[in-house]
Amino acid sequence: MNDFLTHPFPPIYDRESRILVLGSFPSVKSREEGFYYGHPRNRFWPMLERIFRTEVHTIPEKKDLLLKNGIAIWDSIASCRIEGSSDASIIDALPNNIPALLSETRIERIITNGRKAYEIYRKYIFSITGIDALCLPSTSPANAAWTLEKLIDKWRVPLTSN
Fold this sequence. Notes:
There is one protein chain. By secondary structure, this protein is an alpha/beta fold. The chain is built from 6 helices and 7 strands, in the order E-E-H-H-H-E-E-E-H-E-H-E-H. The termini are far apart. It is globular. The protein has a 4-stranded parallel beta sheet, sandwiched between helices. The protein has a 3-stranded antiparallel beta sheet with strand order 1-4-5, with helices on one face.
């Protein structure tokens, strides 16, 4: 049976954020850690480290990396039924209040980390924001077809171009 869960932590952003990266819903490991992309095999943080030529080990360092580069992160889903960490199992999804976050930032680009985040954004949020989202390949370890190198190549320009 899928557990009904509410998103356990706030978005990371500040008034200067220009790019919003949306995941779907935190994995079991992320929920345990209390922060985004907490699974040790998720390539999100290693990818950002390579793109921005830095190392991050702690949550404060990760937040600092994001904010220094104008990046906000959140998830498209505020609550849902989910089995473990499987996006495919998500049902009864309710969206996060993305328009409220946009009103407090300078977000001009939205990137989704994988297909499920994109689907939720398009279904519930796009009609309110009017901002198209760019769907990029998931950094999840479940997306084994994409190596770290291929992810870096695909994500670099959208994360670094103005």
